[in-house]
Design a protein that fits this description.
Structural class: mainly beta
Helix content: under 10%
Oligomer: single chain
Shape: globular
């Protein structure tokens, strides 16, 4: 997220010379890696120094302290993705990760961006990689999608309207690589049926800089009377 250095708080404007990164991992000791940041016209790399992982209270989620990133001028970062990561002391390696869209701070997202950075934190400098090429596909990021003609209504359940939301991980070939129930219908049989359907569907993969990439998406499957 963009950072307002003077206020010591998240910025309500996208353009800034400071950004904050938050890194999450399943490792239980530390994490290091590299993150690529994409502006409207350029790509930058940020080397993430090895940092201790902290555990979220009451969960198995682990995270590193927020990392302050410095640019030599205000930029408008639109997308971020982890290019390399190494946990539990391992050397960072290339890994396919989901592209994250960067948003300025809003009051509605206040709870999501609960970040605190002290004034004595030394920022990590972003390194310019290259100017973006001409994007023949038209956009920097195109989300994954259902096959053409596919719909969300999958069947009927008596005289009741039911729906299930499935969260699915899709590889760069459009093949499901994992799915979970994000919002159950309350009927196990319907949820399992919806889960099976999305796991046996081929998808349009997401594209980043016109190249197919891994992604996640939520699909609502409806059962109508």
């Amino acid at each position: 997220m963009p950072w307002n250095a003077r206020a010591g708080a998240p910025s309500t404007k996208l353009s800034s010379d400071r950004y904050v990164l938050e890194l999450f991992a399943n490792g239980r000791t530390d994490v290091a890696g590299a993150v690529t940041l994409i502006t409207s016209d350029s790509a930058y790399s940020v080397a993430i120094p090895r940092s201790d992982l902290l555990r979220s209270a009451g969960s198995n989620d682990f995270y590193a302290e927020p990392i302050l990133v410095a640019f030599d001028k205000p930029v408008d970062v639109h997308y971020a993705y982890v290019d390399q990561i190494g946990v539990d002391g391992a050397a960072p390696e290339a890994c396919p990760t989901v592209v994250q869209q960067v948003h300025p701070f809003t009051a509605d997202a206040g709870n999501e961006f609960d970040v605190s950075i002290g004034g004595d934190v030394k920022p990590v400098n972003a390194t310019f990689l290259q100017a973006l090429p001409d994007l023949k596909c038209g956009r920097a990021y195109i989300p994954s999608g259902l096959p053409r003609g596919a719909g969300g209504v999958v069947g009927a359940y008596g005289n009741q309207r039911k729906s299930t939301v499935i969260r699915i991980y899709i590889d760069s070939n459009g093949i499901p690589a994992g799915a979970s129930i994000e919002r159950p219908s309350g009927i196990d049989g319907l949820d399992n049926n919806a889960l099976g359907l999305v796991e046996h569907t081929r998808y349009e993969p997401a594209k980043f800089l016109c190249t197919p990439v891994v992604s996640e998406m939520s699909i609502e499957m409806e059962y109508n009377p």
